[in-house]
Specification:
- The protein is 26% helix and 23% strand.
- It is built from six helices and eight strands, in the order ββαβαββαβαβαβα.
- It has an eight-stranded mixed β-sheet with strand order 1-2-3-4-5-6-7-8.
- Helix 1 runs parallel beside helix 2.
- The radius of gyration is 16 Å and the shape is globular.
């Protein structure tokens, strides 16, 4: 769908420079998705993977974030191999509803109720980032938080359109449940892509 060089705005790696590869196509379809234009893969003509690898590895930060849509709708083995051969670290952001492909160095799992994550990905996740729209989402966060491997970083992130109302509730929840941390969409506050 698109490629761009910027700073990671969310989660554990907030503030790090990285090349983003946003893959079109998503079968999860969250109502609050801020990239709904990514859902229909047919709107974006296929690009040669070798060209994507060359562009991604040409930037000073040898870090790539593969996101979507839902990137695991595709086999990422060739892309992953090519990036690793060029010394690029791969971060993937996924709902975890499809089998893992490729060989990412870091998995950010953002589980969605309509398409729950597979157990295999829960056990491999380095970071669990649960979007909190209302208080019912705390139970979903906890349900997934007990399934991830020890050492997985646990984040709650306010859904952007509800951030003003839900932020104080998340802060209070985390103060009572300090295994969780808050993730903010800092790129939106800074107005960078």
């Amino acid at each position: 769908m698109e490629e761009f060089y910027t700073l990671q705005g969310e989660g554990f790696h907030t503030g790090k420079a990285a090349y983003f590869i946003r893959i079109g196509g998503c079968d999860v379809g969250c109502s609050w998705c801020d990239i709904k234009e990514s859902w229909n893969a047919s709107l974006y003509p296929p690009l040669a993977t070798d060209g994507i690898i060359a562009r991604a590895s040409s930037y000073p930060a040898k870090s790539v974030i593969i996101t979507g849509g839902e990137p695991l709708n595709y086999n990422l083995a060739y892309l992953s191999q090519g990036l690793h051969e060029r010394g690029v670290t791969i971060f993937i952001e996924t709902s975890g509803s499809r089998p893992l492909s490729g060989n990412p160095d870091w998995i950010c799992l953002s589980p969605k109720k309509g398409s729950p994550p597979l157990n295999d990905i829960l056990m491999k996740a380095d970071e669990l980032k649960v979007i909190i729209r209302d208080t019912a989402d705390f139970a979903w966060a906890e349900e997934n938080g007990v399934k991830v491997r020890e050492g997985c970083h646990l984040y709650m992130q306010p859904e952007w359109s509800r951030r003003t109302a839900i932020m104080p509730v998340i802060i209070s929840y985390i103060k009572d449940h300090p295994v969780w941390k808050i993730s903010l969409q800092s790129h939106k506050y800074m107005r960078i892509p």
